[in-house]
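Re: that chain you flagged

S.,

Sorry for the slow reply, it's been a week of failed gels. I finally had a moment to sit down with the sequence you sent. For the record, here it is as I used it:
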Amino acid sequence: MGIDFDCRKKNMRLLTIIFLFFTTSCFAQRDKIDYVIFGVYCGECVGHCATMFKLEGDKMMVDTSNSYFWNNMLKRKDTISFSKYEASKEMYQYAKALIDSIPTILLDTNTHSCTFGEPDARDQCGIYLEFKYKGKQKQFYIDTDSEYIPVWLLKYKASIENTVNGFYKMVWGR
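Prediction finished late last night. Pasting the structure tokens below so you have them in one place:
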């Protein structure tokens, strides 16, 4: 049974209670996640403004073409180009923990697209998360400013940011 939630509400106490219930009472192994796409996008930048990473099977692909922006402007929201660069096994292993740690509440929600906070509204960038689970594609847009997202999502948000920053250091030395 899925969970519905209104992403625009500021009061997240009920979601926190539901999240705690699911994480403490559901010890069964979760179904396989088909793929995960994640990355940080910044509207006011030069260079790698929307580098996205895709974990699928035992491979990780990287899109440095900013296709995330171009396809959103053209209203082709489900299209990110991953044909240019396949990441190393080291990068895949580094990112694999993101698959295993997706919050249960995101996996089980009936919502297919949701925005937490106001990502990139104040030139603070945003986090994009997409995955396919139990045959359903889900997309989440997450504010990088922790003040505007629910407490239960903070640790996972930080994991995505740390992983992306780690990749930037591995690949581009920054």
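What I noticed first: The first helix runs from residue 13 to 25.

Talk soon,
D.
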